[in-house]
User: Which sequence fits this backbone?
């Protein structure tokens, strides 16, 4: 087995120097900070990465809550109903998947 571009074979018995260990710890800490920062960015973006139907249902709910009406209900009731059906179907699928995973955990 060879490391990088070096032709020197690696052996398991070669101990790491303090400098190498420090460099590895520093890289691991940097990687962890980058992973954590990415996770925080994704968590902040979460509302933006949902399906279109979920976003539309959210818009409908917000409009009803804040204004008490949503004009699209009367203008395009079928489209609104399709949106709600799509969200409900996704929730049912998610619940079904959760039940399957719980059963797998119980068997494990």
Assistant:
């Amino acid at each position: 087995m060879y490391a990088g571009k070096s032709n020197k074979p690696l052996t398991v018995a070669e101990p790491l120097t303090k400098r190498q260990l420090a460099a590895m710890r520093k890289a691991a800490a940097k990687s962890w900070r980058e992973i954590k920062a990415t996770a925080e960015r994704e968590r902040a973006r979460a509302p933006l990465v949902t399906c279109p139907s979920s976003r539309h249902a959210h818009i409908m709910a917000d409009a009803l809550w804040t204004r008490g009406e949503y004009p699209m209900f009367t203008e395009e009731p079928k489209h609104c109903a399709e949106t709600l059906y799509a969200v409900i179907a996704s929730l049912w699928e998610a619940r079904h998947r959760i039940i399957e995973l719980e059963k797998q955990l119980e068997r494990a």
Residues 51-108 form one domain.
